[in-house]
Structure formats: C-alpha cells, structure tokens
C-alpha cells in the first residue's frame, strides 16, 4: 500500500469512525428515554418499550429502500442523507416534549431510525469492503469502539439532564392532589428534553454537510469484494442460505443487545436502586462492550478466527443469561451488564460471515442484514410484556433462545449454501 493510499485509508477510517460515534450516541439514548418517557407519559413496561419498537422497526421498513437509494447516490452521499433524515427525527422531539405526546415521540424515534437505516446500510458494508475480508471483523470492531464509546457517554449526559432530582419530582407527583398540579409537574419534566434535542439536530445537520464535502472515496463492491461466488451474479442470491441465517442472527443479536442496554436502568429501579445511580448502568454495559471489542481487535484474526470468536461469545451469552435468572440485586445487574462483553464481537463477526462472496449484490445483502435489526423492535417489547406478566428478572429468560440461535449460526449456519454455491 502506497503512502497516499495509506493516508486515504486512515482518513476514511477516521471519518467513518465519527459516523459510528454519532449513531452510537443516538442509539444508546434509548435506555434513558424508556425510563424517562415511562415517567412523563405514565406508561406501563410494555408501552415504554415501544420506544425500541418505533426506533428499530424503521430499519425493517427502510432497509431495502436504503439499498436502492445507495445505488443511486453511492456510499458517501447516502451517509450524508442518512444524517439529514436523523436530524429531522430529533427536531420532532421539540414539539413532542412541549405537548408531552408519546405518539409524537415515537414518530420522531421512527424517523431517526429511518435515517440510521440509510446510514448503517452504507457504513457497514463500506467498512467491510474497505480492506481484506479476513480483517473485516477487526475493522468493524474498531468502529464498534467508536460506537460504544459514544454509547458510554450518551446515557450519562442525557441521564444527568433528564434524571436530575428525579426522586424529588416523583415524590411531588405522588403527593399531588389534583390533576392540574400533576400535569404541570409532568410538563416541566418533559421540557428537559428540548435543549439536548435541539443540540443533537444542529450537530447532525453539520455532519451531514461535512460528510458530503469530505474526501471519502467511493468504493466499488465488485472490485473491493473480489471473492464472488458464481450465483451471486444472479438476482437469486437470496438462495444463499447463509445470508438469510445471518439476517436472523442479526435479528436475535440486536434483540439481546437492546435488552441488555435499554432495560438495565429500569431493572436497577426494580432492584430498589436509586435512578441517580442506575443511570450509569447502561454505561457499564457499554464499557463491557468496549472491552470486548478491544479483546477482539487484539485476537482477530491472527490468534482466533471471527467464526470461533462468535461461538465463544454465544456460549458466554447463554451462561451470563442463566446468571441473571439465578441471582438478584447488584450481582444480577452485573451479569446483565457483562452481556455487553459477550455481545461485542457478534455484530463484527456476523457481517463478514454473511456478506462473503456477494459481489455487486453487497448493498442488497447489507440491506437484508439491516432488516434483521427489527429484532430490536420485537424482542425488547416482548421482554416488557413478560416483565408485566412475570417480573423484570424472570423475563430475561427470553435471552436464552436468542443466544442459542446465534450459537447455531456460528457453528453451522454460516456455512450453509456457501460451499455449494462456490463449487
């Protein structure tokens, strides 16, 4: 690699890392929002987890349209467009907060998710084909650190703003004797969302402009993903079973990742822990994920393959889930936070294992994987319903079948259809 190519590669990695930081920052606000919107909109557990449904359902809706958009715009303009759409979603939070309208909050979250779908459909395959396939998981792990570092910061920042003196406000709400006083207290609480979301909107629009004028190179999937299997040149690439199973693995992975990050504050409250302390729990989950990414970067691919790493992490996820179910209090919360470590390598490993050999259909294959993100829309509310019916701890039983499927994909699923088509 020449000096100019190395400089271009480094610049691209830095710019894409900034994008991963941005959508990580926005995505990992949901744990705080679930707890906060449950308070101000007076919701039960199931209703509060519709935050995750609105946010992640948009990926399913927008994934295939995103691939068509990217075919027209290319990667760079597609990234810029995704940021602009996200900014439209964040600005909707302003009237939503002023009206204390849960449907309007969900609308804003859905639009943010639409923008993220475009952005992720562009960014993830971009990172995958930016270098050799065998080091793709390592590159995505580096991006994951940017994403999760943002996730570490964002709930602390938003939690500090939204949850300040929340116990005192809760006491006032409990003591309110008339609906007018209670509504005023809830409206005042809701106004705390205005300033941060105005700030988010400005930042997203600025980055949309910067990416559009940046020196990011436009990559060609056929040239940069040369390991193309014959049938990938035909639209029947959906017959590549490993890709479909990869999308299902993403479905379950996103579901368990969202539960681990977004339910932990509420689970802390269930264990009688002060919200002022519990606001740090999401960051603990993200810290475990960052450690997992660092371990992955150190070990892959020289010491351990991405396939073996995925198997190990799936087994660890099963063991930690059992730990959550069998313990209580801070120990149970620690097992939940530690799922961040188990989850860290899953996304970086599943992507290259699912996209290998798709050639010019890489964007469409990526869109199918992005559709799998709908797991974050379905599995967390299912957890919320189980929490209402059973209790928040026993509801974590839902994690076990998810990790079992990921283990199946890591052992066998990623091979099904690939060898046959390559022959």
Word description of this protein:
The protein has helices at residues 3-27, 30-40, 45-48, 50-99, 102-129, 136-162, 166-175, 179-190, 194-212, 221-224, 241-262, 264-270, 275-278, 281-299, 306-326, 329-344, 346-355, 362-371, 375-389, 399-411, 418-422. It is an all-alpha fold and 423 residues long. The chain has one domain: MFS general substrate transporter like domains (Growth Hormone, Chain: A). 55% of the residues are buried. Mean pLDDT is 86; it is low at 222-235.
- The overall pLDDT, averaged over residues, is 86
According to CATH, the fold-level topology is: Growth Hormone, Chain: A
CATH architectural type: Up-down Bundle
Q: Which structural class is indicated by helix and strand composition?
A: mainly alpha
CATH class: Mainly Alpha
Q: Largest sheet, described in full?
A: none
Order of helices and strands: HHHHHHHHHHHHHHHHHHHHH
Cα distance spanning the termini: 32 Å
| Rg computed from alpha carbons, rounded to a whole number of angstroms | 21 Å
Low-confidence segments, given as residue ranges, are: 222-235
Overall geometry:
globular
Strand content: under 5%
Number of helices: 21
The total strand number stands at 0
Number of domains: 1
Output the CATH homologous superfamily: MFS general substrate transporter like domains
Helical proportion, percent range: over 70%
């Amino acid at each position: 690699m020449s000096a100019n190519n190395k400089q271009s590669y480094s610049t691209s990695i830095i710019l894409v890392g900034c994008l991963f930081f941005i959508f990580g920052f926005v995505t990992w606000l949901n744990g705080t929002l679930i707890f906060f919107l449950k308070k101000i909109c007076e919701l039960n557990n199931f209703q509060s987890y519709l935050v995750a449904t609105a946010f992640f359902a948009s990926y399913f809706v927008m994934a295939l349209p995103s691939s068509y958009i990217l075919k027209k715009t290319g990667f760079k303009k597609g990234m810029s467009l995704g940021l602009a759409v996200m900014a439209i979603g964040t600005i909707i939070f302003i009237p939503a907060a002023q009206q204390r309208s849960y449907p309007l909050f969900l609308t804003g979250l859905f639009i943010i998710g639409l923008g993220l779908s475009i952005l992720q459909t562009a960014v993830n395959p971009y990172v995958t084909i930016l270098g050799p396939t065998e080091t793709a998981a390592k590159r995505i792990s580096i991006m994951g650190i940017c994403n999760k570092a943002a996730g570490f910061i964002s709930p602390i920042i938003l939690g500090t703003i939204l949850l300040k003196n929340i116990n005192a406000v809760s006491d006032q709400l409990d003591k309110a004797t008339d609906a007018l006083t209670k509504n005023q207290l809830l409206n005042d609480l809701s106004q705390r969302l205005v300033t941060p979301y105005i700030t988010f909107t400005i930042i997203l629009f600025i980055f949309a402009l910067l990416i559009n004028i940046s020196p990011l190179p436009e990559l060609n999937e056929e040239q940069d993903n040369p390991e193309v299997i014959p049938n990938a040149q035909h639209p029947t690439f959906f017959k590549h079973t490993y890709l479909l199973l990869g999308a299902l693995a993403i479905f379950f992975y996103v579901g368990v990742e969202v539960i681990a990050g977004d339910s932990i504050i509420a689970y802390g409250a269930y264990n009688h822990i002060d919200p002022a302390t519990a606001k740090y729990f999401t960051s603990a989950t993200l810290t475990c994920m960052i450690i997992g990414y660092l371990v992955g970067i150190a070990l892959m691919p020289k010491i351990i393959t991405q396939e073996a790493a995925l198997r190990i992490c799936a087994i660890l996820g099963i063991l930690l889930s059992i730990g959550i179910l069998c313990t209580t209090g801070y120990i149970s919360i620690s097992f939940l936070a530690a799922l961040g470590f188990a989850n860290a390598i899953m996304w970086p490993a599943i992507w290259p294992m699912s996209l290998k050999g798709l050639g010019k259909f890489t964007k469409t294959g990526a869109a199918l994987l992005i559709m799998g993100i709908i797991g974050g829309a379905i599995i967390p509310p299912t957890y919320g319903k189980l929490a209402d019916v059973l209790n928040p701890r026993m509801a974590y039983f839902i994690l076990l079948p998810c990790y079992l499927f990921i283990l199946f994909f890591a052992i066998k699923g990623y091979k099904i259809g690939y060898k046959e088509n390559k022959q």
